[in-house]
Design a protein that fits this description.
- By secondary structure, the chain is mostly helical.
- The protein folds into 2 domains: 54 residues; 27 residues, no CATH class.
- It is 76% helix and 0% strand.
- It has 5 helices and no strands.
- It is flat.
- The chain starts with a helix and ends with a helix.
Length: 87
């Protein structure tokens, strides 16, 4: 049990860095997605804006599919190429 706490405290800076990086990654896309309806509302209909916003759904669902990308890969291609090649 004590070794689990040591591992946690040793990895804590990495976990915090990961949280900060994901937050910084999400801020620009959040500002961009929030500004699209405001900027384009005089040029497009609401349904057209809705279709544009639906194109961003894969980015929003990244949390759900990223664990599968990390855990399941082809040994023939390697871990990183297994998701880069299909993209």
């Amino acid at each position: 049990m004590a070794s689990d706490k040591k591992i946690f405290y040793r990895e804590l800076p990495k976990i915090l860095l990961l949280i900060v990086l994901y937050t910084l990654q999400g801020l620009p896309i959040g500002f961009f997605l929030s500004s699209i309806p405001v900027i384009f509302k005089k040029y497009l209909t609401y349904s057209e804006i809705g279709v544009m916003m639906m194109c961003t759904m894969p980015f929003s669902m990244k949390v759900l599919w990223s664990p599968f990308v990390e855990f399941y890969y082809s040994e023939k291609f390697g871990k990183r190429k297994s998701w880069i090649v299909p993209m």
